Amino acid sequence: MKTIQFFSILFILPLWVAAQKNVNGKVYDKHPAIEITNAFNDAYVSGDVDKLKSLVSEDFKMWDMMTNNPNYKIGDFNTLLGQVNFIKNNLVHASITNRGSAYSDAIEYKKRRTSCTHLSAVYSLGQRQRV
After folding, report:
1. Does residue 126 sit in helix, strand or coil?
2. Percentage of the chain with pLDDT > 90?
3. What is the pLDDT of residues 26-68, one digit of tens each?
C-alpha cells in the first residue's frame, strides 16, 4: 500500500508543480499603445514618412516574422522606407484592418515593458499600372 501511495505522489507532484501559474502582466483591448500602432499602420500604408518618423525611435528595428531565410538581417528605418515606397508606388487602396473577430491588444509586463500585438490583414485592390 505504501508503494502505491509513494508512486501516486511521485506521479502527481510534477503535474501539480507544472500547473502553477505566474502572472506576468495584464492584457488590454484598449490601450494607448494600440492607438500608436494604428497610427503607425495608417502612415505605413498611406506613405506618410513624416508621421512614421514621429512614431519610431532613432534605434528603430523591424523583423520579418514570416521568413525562413537563415541569412535574414534585421531591418532599420531605411528598410521601412523601402517598404513604404513599394506600397505607395505599387498598391492601390492598401489598408491594414482587424480581421474577423481578431483585434489588437497590448500587454503590460511587470518589468515595465509594453508589447502591442496587431492581428490584422493587409488588403489591396491590385497593382498600379505603369505607363
Report:
1. strand
2. 12
3. 888 888 888 888 898 899 989 999 999 999 988 888 887 777 8
Show the domains of the chain with their CATH numbers: 24-127 (3.10.450)
Please state, rounded to an integer, the average pLDDT across all residues of the chain: 77
Ordered DSSP codes for 105-123: EEEEETTS-EEEE--EEEE
Grid cell of 118 as nine digits: 496587431
Q: For residue 13, what is the enclosing H or E element?
A: helix 2-18
Considering Cα of 48, then 50, then 55, then 58, what sign does the dihedral take?
positive
Cα separations (Å) of 71 from 62, 68, 74, 78, 82? 15, 9, 10, 18, 19
* Cell 502572472, residue located: 23
Q: Which region holds residue 126: left if phi is over 0, alpha if psi is between -120 and 50, else beta? A: left
CA distance 53 to 55: 5
